[in-house]
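# step 3/5: fold
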Amino acid sequence: MTELVSVLPDDIVRDCLARVSYEGFPTIASVCKDWMAEIQLPEFHRLRKDAGHAQKLIVMAQARVEPNLMTSGVIKCSVHHPVHRLTICEPETGVWRELPLAPEMSAGLPMFCRLAGTGSYLVVMGGWDPVTWTVSNSVFVYNFLTATWRRGADMPGRPRTFFGCASDSERRMVYVAGGHDENKVALRSAMAYDVDEDEWVMLPDMARDRDECKAIFHAGKFRIIGGYCTEMQGRFERTAEEFDVSTWCWNHIEEDFLEAGKCPRTCAGGDDGAVYMCRGADVVANKSAKWQVVGKLPAEVCNVAYTWMWQGKFLVIGSAGFGRSHVGYILDLKCYSWRKVQTPENYSGHVQAGCYFEI
């Protein structure tokens, strides 16, 4: 590779590039091929992280809020179904912005689509067409380095919705399991999407059918929590099972992982290996096979829509009740204190899905 800038040492240039906001990456990539190649290197992103310049982002599928439908924190019901968009929140700074959708999404995001983040890629999978309500197996990939979308290879098999989805950033893989088909038949099949190669590979089936299951990825394990079989229809199981990517097989089932009938939607994997979730008015953690209360939910987010864990922090986005504005709070698990995330009114719509990036 030639010099990045002819009059400066490469180390200084790299340090300057590492300080640029992720929003400036497309500009860097457009300067020259060498700069484009530089910001794609794993070493560049390690430099950003080690130097404290990496930015933490939550990308969400969020309902658009029209200002004329807001009254004192209450979102008035519209005669139309809500249009969903992609929003980005920097939880540590309170900065929000909207991410442009792919040209094929002119009517809005697919309803109930799943989001996954791996490396510098955002992957949007499945969901219902917002106009026809038909189930789609489509895959769209957004590259934060170039600010461009591409159409990925469709999910193989029959139409699938309400599946579990989680990503492995190290391997650039997105894992999918469970859900149900177009006849509302629960599925036990699983698969993985290689973002770089744009290819799908089938995984061995899970031990059980799992509709509306929750997926998390931690320490090389793809864990599937809860869900229910076709005959149970909404009565959630207590069990969980996990897929080991190193052995390419599913491990034993944890029979009593959840409380009976508990929806696993708010489960999130912690850096400490524990699983955190919201249960009633509490935040609880599963440590050493026992659930323990670690905090009380703020009243403003008692109706929880979305959760995420990173670096000892537990993010909760929710509302005080149906039709109320959605806001975010972060629980610091070192001191067990809450901090409210500043949320502009036009970013207070319901959150259907989300994923985390550290870019």
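# step 4/5: annotate
Residues 10-18 form the longest helix (9 residues).
# step 5/5: archive (pending)
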